[in-house]
Amino acid sequence: MKTFDPTSPYNALPKLPPPGDLETKAVLKKCASVHAALAALKERGRRIPDQSVLINAIPIMEAKDSSAIENIVTTSDALFRDASLKDDSDADPATKEASRYRSALQLGFQTLAHRPITTRTAVDICSDLKGVDLDVRSVPGTKLRNTNTGDVIYTPPEGEVLLRELLANWERFLNDATELDPVVRMAVGHYQFEAIHPFIDGNGRTGRVINILFLIEQGLLDLPTLYLSRYILANRADYYRLLLDVTTKQAWEAWILYMLDGIENTARWTAEKIGAIYDLIDATVAYVRDAAPKIYTRELVDVIFMQPYSRIQNVVERGLAHREKASRDLKHLVAIGVLREIKVGREKLFLNVRYAALLSGDANTFDAFAKIEPVASAQSKK
């Protein structure tokens, strides 16, 4: 076998499946706990009556951290605002790019209804998250460097014909190697996709979107609710080190165990987060019903959990009220401490304070509502 040279295109990248036993005793033991954690996450997610709450919330958190892995840094609050506004022209470049990750994840999720994961899926996802039409590159890939020393540590394969051949093999492995546990296939497939590096830019984020989609396709998740990038961001040095160790040492077991630990860790953490969201929704329902009985409806509470930031138009579009009443009702929720009104340009946004804090922080707790006397609605004061 030709000696690996990090400065030369790795056109000798071996095709899948790798030789040897991928499902070692340690890997199989870990698979069992990973499946249990994913099953618990799936079940916890089903407790939320309006599933769009999860589809809107968790992918924003995933988008922020997956982008941060690539040094595209923004804040949860900036992403929450951007998701609520129809016009993102005032958003900074990092926020726009991270927001496109969320869009790409949702696009990929929708494509699963009519086709399996393919090279076309990857092309569509990368194009969406970059905001331009892309295809498999026909030019040399970017050399990957050690962030501390600047030394080249990996040069991806080059030549469009070879890249498409490697991607076809990757696609067949994901869809046909059913003798392997799905979570093992995901880990192996993720390494291979990153090693192929098929696009000029966006390969890491595209690969991490595909991880989530693959778990959904295999029936291990219902929705794109696994916050896997949280683990990778916290263990970023290990992520890149172990990827390189597969290339240079064929150290598959350590890489697979790293990815499985990430899935289990974030599945359990995300399940706890979803449980806290469920509890906060229940607490908000009870509080608004008692503190503002004249405007309370369960549907109104559901609207303010669609996104951390709500707009008057969100209430109108749900058919709950005309614009004037929708505005009064949201302002009433401000008065009793559920929402905070914020002006962004010409838009009025209403921030669900506890929900935003819950999504943004590591803790799965929220501030209790104060015990107050019912506040008369703006309409009843007339």
Give the uncertain stretches in residue-range form: none
| Outline | elongated
Distance separating the two termini:
84 Å
CATH architecture name of the largest domain: Orthogonal Bundle
Q: Which secondary-structure class do the elements indicate?
A: mainly alpha
The helix-strand sequence is HHHHHEEHHHHHHHEHHEEHH
Helix content: 55-70%
CATH superfamily of the largest domain: Fido-like domain
Task: Explain what you see.
This protein has 382 residues and is mainly alpha-helical. The protein folds into two domains: 25-268, Fido-like domain (Fic-like fold, Orthogonal Bundle), CATH 1.10.3290; 273-381, Winged helix-like DNA-binding domain superfamily/Winged helix DNA-binding domain (Arc Repressor Mutant, subunit A), CATH 1.10.10.10. Helix content is 59%, strand content 5%. It has 16 helices and five strands. A three-stranded antiparallel beta sheet has the order 3-5-4, with helices on both faces. A two-stranded antiparallel sheet has the order 1-2. Helix 2 (52-69) runs parallel beside helix 9 (228-234) and helix 7 (182-196) packs antiparallel against helix 8. The termini are far apart.
